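Comment on this:
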Amino acid sequence: MKFGSHTLNQGAEGIAPRRCRFFLSSLLYVLVSIPAVSGHAAEQETNGLRQPPANYIDTSGAIQVVGNDGMESVLEGFNTLFSRTHPDLRFKLYLKGSSTAIPALTSGISAFAPMGRDIWPTDRTNFRNAHGYEPVDIKIGYAGWGPRTSFKTPPAVYVNQANPLPGLTLTQLRQVLVTGEPRGDITKWTQLSTDSKQAPRQIHIYGLADDGGSATAFRLAHLDGLPFSSHYEALPTAAEVMRAVAADPYGIGFVGWFNAEKVPGTRLLPLAASEGQPYAIPSQQDLTADRYPLTAYLHIYIDKAPGHPVAPWLIDYLKLALSAPGQAVIAKERDKEGGFLPLSDASRQAELEKVELLSKP
């Protein structure tokens, strides 16, 4: 389930009333959808489940997991494999969308938070306010690839199809989209290209509202948290962003998870991680070579309190997700709607090293 934008002021930490209400409504939705936990069930200790009592164990003794509905087949595959080595553990999935994952983890009624996107700033702030620390992020796969016919493409930058620009480095993208980049702002197309076809016109920037949702998360993750340019025009939907770029030869826009076939007249702009690196798009080849700088991942967020190790069963679960059989479960989704891909060997090893640290206080 994909949610649209929600209102938060431009600061990463400030929570506006409407965005706060969305967090509370997500939490309320989760709370009323999941049966209450009995004291007896919560106090059980199953295969090193957790101490103190875990609120994510339901009245039947099953472990509750709340999160992204697009990951259902992946989680069911993991659970089937996991049951072979942990037959006493059972899971109950409540998968209504990534926006329910962190509220459920924050309240303690989900053992972990499976998500098809990065945590949004307000959810991170609410978790930190509740616990005094931030959730740990373990990446388990790539969340999709494209462009591909009839399916959505992962987060990408688009220009008008008449634009001759071959691509941008991530630094150049920051110089275009935000203000205050140390190497200077870029405001005209001729600053990016010596192509005689490129007119000396101002760059027109289109995107979604910087309100605590996907645009804010994008700015914090890829644009050094700098404020968007004064030329940035926020539009209500990704479709409107794409239509604006299609109608404007001097436009550039960024959106996440959009089928660009629905809006002719745009072109996905290749990006490079740094100067001298090859341009890349979110294709299978570029993602699995770790070349695309805006890669979207499949995540499992967990609650790891400082000074306390994570439950042994959860460490085993994460290791399974990152094992060859676990990655094979993800690979089965490659040509389906989600388009999930297993991690590269280098990325998988980096995540396994993070998992190993979870057993330490």
Remarks:
- The chain has two domains: 63-144+296-359, 156-289.
- The two ends are 35 Å apart (CA to CA).
